[in-house]
Amino acid sequence: MTVLDPSAGYFTLINTFTVEPKRAQALLAHLSKATEELFLHAPGFVSANLHMSRDRRHVTNYAQWRSQEDYDAAVKNPETQAHMRDAAALASTFNPIFYDLIETHLAEPAA
Amino acid sequence: MTVLDPSAGYFTLINTFTVEPKRAQALLAHLSKATEELFLHAPGFVSANLHMSRDRRHVTNYAQWRSQEDYDAAVKNPETQAHMRDAAALASTFNPIFYDLIETHLAEPAA
């Protein structure tokens, strides 16, 4: 399970792909395969969390890395560059944004 | 702590606000206050997770609800509508997208 905890201090990448609905499943499968093959053993990789929008027009990866430096090093790999070109070709647009998780608010447990 | 687990079956809302960097902190504070006052006790609310982009041009809420019906009911509340207008006034644009979490990939623990 992925845990969101501001005190972990992770680098968070949210990458939102816009996609034709008929290609959404193929894009998600491509991101899944690339995660397993390229990122899972990369130094500093923590998690990737793949989301499909209910209208199938967006596929979004919520990814955690130990640091931005670890992420930068992973994406310099030529195999990763090839994967990113393939993902971009399946999508209409993509928009990676680099974040820090600042606050988490949780529902209070029922009494 | 927030947990991302596909088997939970939550409705996931990722709302990306574009903002002038000088207003980013005020927007995050507004979202934080509204979460505490309006959502924390709403039926079906699970979590809100507030992110600031490293360039301060985006503030993003990754929110979990038990179901889309619970979220729809919460946003019909007139106080929630007023909050959303205030948040929209602080931001340049906002883009709420409705998702399901499909897959989570975790780094394997070091041997």
Which residue ranges of chain A are poorly predicted, with pLDDT under 50 across at least 5 consecutive positions?
none
Largest sheet of chain A: 4 strands, antiparallel
Helix-residue proportion of chain A:
25-40%
Largest interface: A-B, 42 and 42 residues
CATH class descriptor of chain A: Alpha Beta
Write down the overall geometry of chain A.
globular
Give the oligomer, counting copies of the same chain as homo and different chains as hetero: homodimer
Q: What is the count of β-strands of chain A?
A: 5
How many helical stretches of chain A? 3
Instruction: Give the name of the CATH architecture of chain A.
Output: 2-Layer Sandwich
Spatial strand sequence of the major β-sheet of chain A:
3-4-2-5
List the helices and strands and how they pair.
Two copies of one chain form a homodimer.
Chain A (H helix, E strand, L loop, with lengths): L1 E3 L6 E8 L2 H19 L5 E9 L4 E8 L2 H9 L1 H13 L2 E14 L5
Antiparallel strand pairs in A: 2-4, 2-5, 3-4
Helix pairs in contact in A: 1-3
